[in-house]
């Protein structure tokens, strides 16, 4: 394997491990309301049942994605098809931004100062 290919694989592997770390952090924030309050500086918000249910489902999906990235990082060339699965949601979020949030900002409904 030539030097350029080794560098490309090392870059892909590093991106996967960075994704693993970010996803694990997101899992902690989704599972633990106390951790989310501390991380985001949310004061005394106490989530209700619906939020807890939805965030735990999100955390389980995020954890599955985390394992998928870790598995891909171990053999990025052999699992290159998994990279397409990984890139699709990221690109779709970039191509289809959060329109409802932006509409709220235009109407002055954002919570920021």
Structural class: mainly alpha
Which range does the strand content fall in? Answer: under 5%
- The sequence of SSEs as H and E is HHHHH
Radius of gyration: 18 Å
Count of distinct strands: 0
What is the oligomeric state here?
Answer: single chain
Mean of all residue-level pLDDT scores? 82
What does the largest sheet look like? none
What is the end-to-end distance? 54 Å
Low-confidence stretches: none
Helix content: over 70%
The tally of domains stands at 1
Continuous helix count: 5
Described by the principal axes of the CA atoms, the overall outline is elongated
What does this 3D model show about the protein?
The chain is an all-alpha fold and 113 residues long. The chain is 77% helix and 0% strand. It contains 5 helices and no strands. It has one domain (3-106). The chain has helices at 3-31, 33-40, 49-74, 80-95, 99-106.
Features:
mainly alpha, 0% strand, 113 residues
Task: Provide a short characterization of the protein structure.
The chain is an all-alpha fold and 113 residues long. Helix content is 77%, strand content 0%. Helix 1 (3-31) packs across helix 2, helix 1 runs antiparallel to helix 3 and helix 3 packs across helix 4 (80-95).
What order do the helices and strands come in, and which of them pair?
Blueprint: H1 3-31, H2 33-40, H3 49-74, H4 80-95, H5 99-106
Helix pairs in contact: 1-2, 1-3, 3-4
């Amino acid at each position: 394997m030539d030097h350029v290919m080794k560098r490309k694989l090392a870059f892909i592997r590093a991106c996967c491990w960075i994704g693993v770390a970010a996803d694990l952090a997101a899992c902690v924030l989704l599972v633990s309301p106390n951790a989310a309050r501390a991380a985001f500086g949310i004061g005394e918000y106490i989530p209700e049942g619906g939020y807890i249910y939805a965030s735990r489902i999100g955390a389980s999906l995020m954890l599955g994605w985390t394992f998928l990235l870790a598995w891909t990082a171990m053999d990025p060339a052999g699992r290159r098809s998994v990279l397409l699965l990984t890139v699709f949601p990221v690109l779709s979020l970039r191509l289809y931004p959060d329109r409802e949030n932006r509409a709220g900002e235009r109407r002055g409904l954002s919570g920021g100062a």
